[in-house]
Design goal:
It is a single chain. About 50% of the residues lie in helices and about 10% in strands. The protein is mainly alpha-helical.
Length: about 70
């Protein structure tokens, strides 16, 4: 199943935060506003809600992308 444009942007933003890559200000604002990401000590981290959303979108897209800590 293909992701919508909105879902694709959200997944890209979550993966960018996950891998500490740059992302646009608009994408960052969206994931912060929706509480998928939080800023902590000057760094951005995915929240549990963000992990759940990342996993949901990855499943819809047929991907298996996890943090090493999620591999349990």
């Amino acid at each position: 199943m293909a992701l919508s444009k909105t879902q694709n942007r959200r997944l890209g933003a979550l993966l960018s935060v996950m891998f500490a890559e740059e992302l646009t200000e608009d994408d960052l604002e969206d994931v912060l506003k929706d509480k998928y990401v939080q800023e902590k000590e000057g760094q951005f981290k995915i929240t549990q809600k963000g992990l759940d959303e990342k996993n949901r979108l990855c499943t819809l897209a047929g991907l298996n992308i996890k943090y090493q800590s999620e591999a349990k």
